[in-house]
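Explain this fold:

***
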Amino acid sequence: MIHWVRVARASPPEPRPRGLCTRAGPSRRTGGTGSSSPRGATVPRRARDTARQTDSRWFNVKVTFVGGEGNAESGAPEGWSEDDTGLHRDFRFSDFATAWRFMGFVAAEAERMDHHPDWSNSYDRVSITLISHDKGRVTGRDHRLAALIDDIFAAVSKVDR
């Protein structure tokens, strides 16, 4: 099965040219001078949607799932360790923002799979443990989520360089 994951690029957004987001016409707060309100004006919805569709700060990553529900007799995936408490792996990133972005992508996919990791974050490190709590052991779902997490890590690390 193939699934697409949307990943944010690490570079900051480019600044907008001045004047593109100001409201045309008189302003009630400025006595008709045409200045934008203190809160700023909004970009029309169509322009916002078009910008999202063509935004080069985002790209899609193709993730391929292999294997079935099966059992975990085949051992831990590469880079992961396995014991009685589950599959474990520690990830390290260049900074906190990248680690947090990675966790956001993993959280979205874990929610979609309805299979949630036990994890912790300390600045640029994320530690993850996977186990099927209802079965009390590692299952194929854990292996599939581990493979997905590895693919997300590779994509986020590639963008972060």
